[in-house]
Structure formats: structure tokens, C-alpha cells
Specification:
Helix content is 65%, strand content 0%. By secondary structure, the chain is mainly alpha-helical. Helix 3 packs across helix 5, helix 3 crosses helix 6 and helix 7 runs antiparallel to helix 8. The termini are far apart.
Length: 285
């Protein structure tokens, strides 16, 4: 009879020990879970990736200068890249003949819509073929800067604007009676002058007025300008002209080539003239 109380006592001790072990195990699991939860919350607060929201910058200030949209690089296929690497031109957004005609019109705008006599007078340039070329190449360069923003079609158009310029220069030299040997030498010198001027003007338009004035002094004035007011006049002219051309619609330029120029001297040079949209028919002509 003494065995039954002993067995029950042993069973009670075993049950109490088991329950205590289970409680300790449960408490340990809850503590681990709590530590993990606290660590996760601290990581979430400290990491910027888990920020629930961020403050947005809002302003009521109006913008007075038109922002030029950034042109993304045009995507072309592998075949187009291959033929262009071989020196050919792949398919373009518009018909190539339309772009060639527009390029010729754009060059004619650089020739017919510029008062060269005014430039010769204001800049004290001699009335020669070389002075005419220096003024013409300045306006051709401004057109090239604008059209290079229009992707592959704009670059294709730049090529034929320059081609039209060299054709015109050669014809003018023939009309003036320049001999073939001297004409060849003059064309070579003008070619070197043109590409040197492009690099100088590109650097000047991306820099401050001092760099642009230095480029104009070297290329337009041929290092012979001693009047700072003339340099100031030309720097202001290039700046306002580039701002005006940049506001023109790119598709209209690709289809028509129509460019209007602001006058060399005007009372309020800071004003932006309203750009009128050109008209063309369904075929782009």
C-alpha cells in the first residue's frame, strides 16, 4: 500500500518538471521573437528604403524661361547600325529628299535674310568674300547647333546644310573670277577656318561671355578687333539669336527649313520675340 503514494508523488514531480520545462521553452521562444521584432523595427526606421513617405518640394514661383526638353537618343536596329557604320544613312523619320530641300532652304535663310552690309559696318569688316564667309559661317553654325538636337534626321540635315554652303562658296568664287589654283587654296583655308570656328563657337556657347567673345575675336574678327563694344554687340547677338532659334519647333525645321533672324541692333535685346509657326502642305513642302 505504501507504493501507491510513492508512485503518485513521483508522477507529480515529473509532471511539474515537464510543465516548468515547457514554460521555459515557451518563454524563450517569445523572448527570441520579441528581440527579432524589435531589431526589424529598428532596421526599418533607420533604412531609407522603408520610409513610408517623403516630403515633396512645392513652389508657387512661375518660370519665365522656356525649358528645352531633353532629346533622348533614337533607338535604331542592328541593320541600321551596321549600314551607318559602313558610311551609309539608314531610314529616317522623314523622307530624305524633303530633308535635303529643307536643308537648302535653311542655308538660303542664312544668306538672304541677313543684312551683311550692317555686319560689315558695325563690326568694321572689309567688304570681301572672306568677310562674307565669316558672317555666313556664324549663322550656319547656329543652325547646326539647333538641328543637332533633332536626332539622326537633324544630323543628316546638318550634313546638307554644310554641303550647300561649300557649293555656294565655290560658285561665288568662280563668279568673282578667282583662278582655279587660288580658288583651291582659298577653299582649303576656308575649310580649316570653318571647322576651327565650330569648335571655338561650341566652347563659347557652353561657357561664359568671355570665352564666347574670345571665339568671336579669333574667328569673326580675325584677331583684328580693338573695340570692346563690337565684341559686346556680337556676344549679345549670338546669345539672343540662339535663344530665339532654340524656341523654334524641331519638326517644322526638318520639314521647311525656315529660320527667321532677330536684328543685329534692337532697343530691347532681352525680349523674346513670338515665334510664328511656318506653313507647309501635306507633303512637307
Amino acid at each position: 500500500m505504501y507504493r501507491r503514494p510513492l508512485q503518485s508523488a513521483v508522477r507529480n514531480i515529473i509532471n511539474v518538471s515537464a510543465s516548468r520545462a515547457a514554460c521555459r521553452k515557451a518563454l524563450h521562444q517569445e523572448a527570441c521573437f520579441a528581440r527579432a521584432l524589435i531589431a526589424f523595427q529598428l532596421t526599418r526606421v533607420s533604412s531609407p528604403c522603408f520610409m513610408p513617405c517623403r516630403t515633396l518640394h512645392a513652389t508657387t514661383q512661375l518660370r519665365h524661361v522656356k525649358e528645352t526638353p531633353q532629346h533622348t537618343e533614337e533607338e535604331v536596329g542592328a541593320f541600321t547600325k551596321l549600314i551607318e557604320a559602313m558610311g551609309f544613312t539608314g531610314p529616317l523619320k522623314y523622307n530624305k529628299w524633303k530633308i535635303k530641300i529643307a536643308a537648302l532652304r535653311m542655308y538660303m535663310c542664312c544668306i538672304e535674310r541677313i543684312n551683311y552690309d550692317e555686319f560689315f559696318e558695325k563690326c568694321s569688316l572689309p567688304d570681301t568674300l572672306n568677310s562674307w564667309f565669316l558672317v555666313a559661317q556664324l549663322h550656319v553654325w547656329m543652325c547646326l547647333v539647333r538641328m543637332r538636337q533633332e536626332g539622326r534626321a537633324g544630323k543628316y540635315m546638318c550634313r546638307y546644310v554644310v554641303h550647300s554652303m561649300w557649293e555656294d562658296v565655290e560658285q561665288r568664287s568662280k563668279i568673282m573670277g578667282i583662278e582655279a589654283i587660288h580658288r583651291k587654296e582659298a577653299m582649303k583655308a576656308m575649310t580649316e577656318t570653318f571647322y576651327a570656328a565650330i569648335f571655338g563657337y561650341d566652347e563659347g556657347i557652353l561657357s561664359d561671355d568671355c570665352v564666347l567673345a574670345a571665339a568671336l575675336w579669333r574667328n569673326l574678327f580675325n584677331r583684328q578687333c580693338e573695340d570692346p563694344e563690337q565684341l559686346e554687340l556680337m556676344v549679345a547677338y549670338v546669345r539672343k539669336q540662339m535663344q530665339f532659334i532654340d524656341a523654334l519647333d524641331g519638326e517644322d525645321l526638318l520639314l521647311t527649313g525656315e529660320v527667321k533672324w532677330r536684328p543685329l541692333v534692337e532697343e530691347n535685346a532681352q525680349s523674346i520675340l513670338k515665334v510664328t509657326a511656318p506653313t507647309y502642305n501635306d507633303t512637307g513642302l
